From TrEMBL:
Organism listed in the record: Oceanibaculum indicum P24
GO MF entry, a single one: DNA binding
Classification of source organism: Bacteria, Pseudomonadati, Pseudomonadota, Alphaproteobacteria, Rhodospirillales
Protein name: Putative DNA-binding stress protein, Dps family
Gene3D superfamilies: 1.20.1260.10
Keyword line: DNA-binding
Any one Pfam family match given in the protein's UniProt record, by short name: Ferritin
InterPro entries xref list: DPS_DNA-bd (IPR002177), DPS_DNA-bd_CS (IPR023188), Ferritin-like (IPR012347), Ferritin-like_SF (IPR009078), Ferritin_DPS_dom (IPR008331)
Domain of life: Bacteria
Family in the record: Belongs to the Dps family.
Amino acid sequence: MGTSTEIDIGISKKDRKAIADGLSRLLADTYTLYLKTHNFHWNVTGRMFNTLHLMFEEQYNALALAVDEIAERIRALGFPAPGSYSQYAKLSSVKEETGVPSAEEMIAQLVKDQEAVVRTARELLPLADKAGDEPTVDLLTQRMQTHEKTAWMLRSLLQ
């Protein structure tokens, strides 16, 4: 056939690997936050039940879409996307919650976790920018904007 399966998108393999590794951390953070938000959706109680139940559902649905986008970007760069709980536990800066905290504690944890995802994305941004990886820069910018806004909205509930 004579076709090449080598990736030639104008970014070196070394840079693609470093970016994919950073995106893997972002994927782990995002997936862990997805799972935690879904858990809180199921288990929230109290005065703000309906508001939080619906808000958490909206957030975990958005996170599910983000997980797919991040994983597909890793694949487009030519590397496998991590996809197991054990990999995510090693890579994620977001800590899982195994108990059932109060509604206010759920909100406080999610604020902290949304901001952790922003920091992970922000850490990767200069590398992607330096490598000329505009699709990843765009993805990271969108993720930071979404997580910063979500953290702000959640934080507003605590005031």
